[in-house]
Design brief:
The protein has about 325 residues and is an alpha+beta fold. It contains nine helices and nine strands.
């Protein structure tokens, strides 16, 4: 009996104007619950700081809430509806509820169509670029942190380890990485991170959506997927081919360039007009004025050169996603 109590999922505490329904999942320092909001009536996801959280946890939670609220109106970032505190000064954040499965589960069960993977990549790239514009890094871009709204739109969530661009290693109290998708410099934790690390993780995520596996899992058959073995592959081994005939060679080259071991740290260098991203162009990654080359703005040394040309590889001449087939399926909803 004691054992079943210990293993029971946590219960959501009372929150004004909302009724707890069930436990959804746990993060590093907080739990997420499904609530039914009373007015307006709708399901919402509520992230709540755990009991006994440290001052550092409170700071991280506040940073996440403030940053998400600032970016909440972006169509590819999870919307925030409100925040507050409950018993024992535990902070909570009310967000839009995106029914499972997330893209991590979808991609591992079956790789996405090329069309759908490119749609998601371009939309999430716009979200990532917007995060960089306000001076932050997400630092945990991966398929499991991309949710899908009931209308089929991908949204980036979980800003729990987001941090200001250029934060020194000594000042970094946010920490953390997801090894299957994180850049070499983030995993080594020996230098200040730049937007190039987020570009790396975005490319690794798109690769996963297409391949059904992380670019760094063991494909040799020996199943060496412990953290040290994976880090060795991240640092020293080439990215294996995606293995799909419908994936354009240019797109695969762009993804591999974005996951380079030692990325360029500047963008918008003076190169001839029309130079190809696959050969090192510093053209924008996605959107009309992506990070690095802003319309009418000055060049920025923000690291997007690592992923230059993602948009060009993913789109046709008029900006429409290249169609792998005529039946590009949408991600299913639970």
């Amino acid at each position: 009996m004691m054992s079943s109590k210990r293993n029971a999922p946590p219960q959501g505490p009372p929150i004004p104007g909302a009724r707890p329904k069930r436990f959804l999942g746990a993060g590093g320092f907080a739990d997420v619950f499904l609530y039914e909001q009373q007015v307006p009536r709708r399901d919402v996801a509520v992230k709540i700081l755990r009991q006994g959280g440290s001052e550092r946890d409170h700071h991280r939670f506040t940073t996440e809430a403030d940053l998400m609220a600032r970016l909440s109106s972006h169509p590819s970032i999870v919307s925030v509806y409100g925040a507050g505190t409950v018993e024992e000064e535990r902070s909570y954040l009310i967000m839009e509820y995106c029914p499972p499965p997330h893209l991590g589960k979808l991609a591992t069960s079956q790789p996405l169509t090329l069309t759908r993977a490119l749609e998601i990549g371009i939309q999430v790239a716009g979200a990532v670029e917007t995060i960089h514009r306000v001076g932050y890094l997400h630092r945990d871009i991966k398929p499991a942190n991309i949710l899908v709204t009931p209308f089929g739109r991908p949204v980036l969530g979980d800003f729990g380890i987001a941090a200001p661009i250029g934060l020194s290693v000594e000042q970094d109290e946010f920490g953390g990485a997801s090894p299957p998708w994180a850049s070499p410099e983030q995993q080594l934790d020996q230098e200040s991170l730049t937007p190039a690390s987020d570009v790396y993780a975005l490319a690794a995520t798109i690769y996963t959506l297409l391949a059904g596996r992380s670019p760094h899992v063991d494909v040799s058959g020996s199943d060496r997927n412990d953290q040290l073995s994976m880090l060795d592959r991240v640092l020293h081994r080439p990215i294996p081919p995606i293995g799909r005939r419908d994936v354009p060679e240019q797109l695969e080259r762009v993804l591999i360039t974005a996951m380079s071991k030692s990325p360029p740290r500047t963008v918008c260098q003076r190169r001839r007009p029309g130079s190809s991203a696959a050969t090192g162009s510093d053209r924008p990654a996605a959107g009309h004025h992506p990070a690095g080359c802003h319309g009418g703005g000055a060049p920025r040394g923000d690291g997007w050169g690592r992923g230059a040309g993602l948009h060009d590889a993913a789109t046709g001449r008029h900006g429409e996603p290249r169609r792998a087939d005529r039946n590009g399926a949408r991600c299913p909803q639970a």
